[in-house]
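Entry for the shared binder. Reason: the reviewer on the internal report wants the predicted structure included alongside the sequence.
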Amino acid sequence: MSESNDVRMTLNYTLDTSIEKYADLPAICMATETPLTYREFGDRIYALAANLASEGVKKGDHIALLGENSPNWGVAYLAIVRLGAIAVPILPDLPEADVHHILNEMHVPVLFVTNRQIEKIYELNQKELKRIITLDDSAATQDVLDVTHFSTYLEESFVVKETMANEGELSFEEVKEDDIASILYTSGTSGYSKAVMLSHKNLTANAYSAATMLDTVLEETVFLSVLPMSHTYEFTLGFICPLIKGCKIAYAGKTPTPAILQRLCAYEKPGVMFAVPLIMEKIYKKRVLPQIEKSRFLSLLCQTSFGRKFVYKKIGAKLVNFFGGELKLMGIGGAALNPDVEKFLKEAEFPYIIGYGLTESAPILAGGPPGDPTITVGSTGKPFPGVQIKIVNTDPDTGIGEIYGCGPNIMAGYYKDEESTAEVLGEDGWLATGDLGYIDDAGNLHIRGRSKNVIVMSNGENVYPEPIEHKLNAYTWVVESLVVENNGKLDGWVYPDYEFIDGETEGQSQAERREHINKYRESMRKEVNKNLSSASRLARVVERREPFIKTATHKIKRYLYSSIE
């Protein structure tokens, strides 16, 4: 293992160090299955890297991964970067056209893919693609595409590795910390997808920062993974960070329902999880609020501050048990958490922290530290260790301005797009996030929304839609909402919880059911408007009959809904 300083912040050095320290500890598995040890995990990575190298994969090549979370995904990724090749993780929920665009632009010679994703490449016309490896050994499409099973390729890889070792040829080109490890295509709320280049140092710096903050998390603690590894949030915090700490990673598989999640947690008893707000908001609405609303006694108790805290602490303890009883920390990020939900988590003494970041910052800029009593509800906490944050072009009245970040985790730039890179990344290393916010007296960062999302009304007043949406989403009968400008007025577009509505309107006609929703819409509009400035008030609340299209972290793609007809 090389000791030179310019390799210490590589993923390769990080992995080698962990294998050396934690060789016989459990490393990675699908939830409820037998885990690979760190030594077994490393052996597979080195073997796969040897086989890829024997087939001509070299430093700088682009190798793509299109699939759901699994230990094989992790093996493939770390084998790619072992060679100095560049991993191109593709978000599983991207449509076929986007997948084709990425694969064509990246000119990949090898693709790792799963059965659920393989249909997206049936019509791909890409001459450079020489080998398709199915991470889950899918053979269903063998007659359409020439594919190799991962298990078969791995068996071959061990033979290749042993042969190369016997012949003294088992060595790979040196990889340095500033070499590009990943190119990730953002799936942003503003439409245009960019290819973000992240170096080894970008990813490891953020992962080491997270590891230092989790000082109470011990070896063999279980990290239960429910978010896609192809997103930096889960990759850095839920994959690299636990490997640094000698922890065990367990993958939940496909997006779990609350019932499945509860079963997996009962088995794995995770100590750490990373989630998007949607998960906690669903649990709050479906499991917490009903307990209170169905009990007159609890409802009365919650009318006083002392009583509410007492009730919330009892429910908070049940919530920890729901997640297996051993939860030390749940990181929540990727989108804004509803303030009502966070107030509950705080008063319930649930072990959570809020994080904020971007793909371009690999990803965390601010969050935690855990246990800091000065973190205020509604903020994302303090700047991450090693990260600097400043507010630029502040409004003299509100103190709100654009958030800039700087640190070793800031991207190298956008792939073959110097113009877009220059727009957000200064020569001094500061990244313009495009998000608006302010820093309070305790040093906490507060996010107010995307600069592109600000609605400028006819009187010149700026309206931030996100806080209004939080108010709408707080209603039990609402799943999600979007506030848009429509002919000089504001409309709230609401997707109802039809299961909840069905429960309330059982036995009623369609007309009665429709009237029930209409009454909800109008009463909500009046109630919410009472707590808004005159410029921010809603002219209409409009029912949307299907969910909004969202990003990987469940943020609504706003550019698709610029106006309401």
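Summary line for the report: Residues 510-529 form the longest helix (20 residues).
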